[in-house]
Write a structure and sequence with these properties.
Blueprint lengths: L4 E6 L5 H12 L2 E4 H14 L7 H10 L2 E4 L6 E4 L2 E2 L7 H11 L2 H14 L5 E5 L2 H5 L5 E6 L2 H12 L8 H17 L12 E4 L5 H12 L4
Parallel strand pairs: 1-6, 1-7, 2-6, 7-8
Antiparallel strand pairs: 3-4, 4-5
Bound molecules: cytidine-5'-monophosphate.
The site of cytidine-5'-monophosphate (C5P) has 14 residues, from helix 2, helix 4 and helix 8.
Length: about 220
Amino acid sequence: SSNVVVAIDGYSSCGKSTLAKALAKKLHFIYVDSGAMYRAVTLYFLRNNVDLKDEEAILAALKDVHLNFHSRDYNSHILLNDEEVSDEIRLMPVSENVSAVAALKSVRHEMVKQQQRMGASKNIVMDGRDIGTAVFPNAQVKVFMTADPKVRAERRFKELSPANPDLTLEDVFENLAHRDYADTTRAESPLTRAADAIILDNTNLTPEQQLDFALEKLKPFL
Ligand code: C5P
């Protein structure tokens, strides 16, 4: 097919979605936040006390989870069974459990299937952990993002703390470290750089510089 796929992977809170949204907006591509999908599934599992060791319960729950995106303004509002959950999925209960849910084979199988369908014939930017390795191994452009862990924790803390006065920088730092560890060491498509992914360390880069970098890499395909 002739559609263009941009895969953006990397560690937690590296600015993947900021870059992905800016690219999608600039190029009029569809943006999909694959992490939001794992987060919404996690929210459903928490609300319904799904036992992560019970394979049948997991499969039954997955059948009851219907995810949709409102792609207004590329903000990627996500609907879980028609309920807007975009804010709730960013809170600590979900952040603390999402990597365990995302490690489950049946969960990944279902999410990857839905993600591949979304990008089957459309120009798309998708960010996550396994987009360039498992979801779209043939993506034209793959970016692997990284940044200093302290800088990442500070950025995320600034985003979350206004609405969460009890949250500490340490909580955020610990959560990022925990998720990076879980995501890189799991058995099912762990976070790893695809051999053909370009590394982008954005510790000292502005969002504009990152956008320019990605646009330059995309030039041959536009
Ligand atoms: O991107 P975000 O940080 O919101 O993702 C939340 C979690 O979802 C990650 O820490 C990871 O465990 C999981 N995830 C994944 N594969 C993806 C996207 C996210 O396993 N493609």
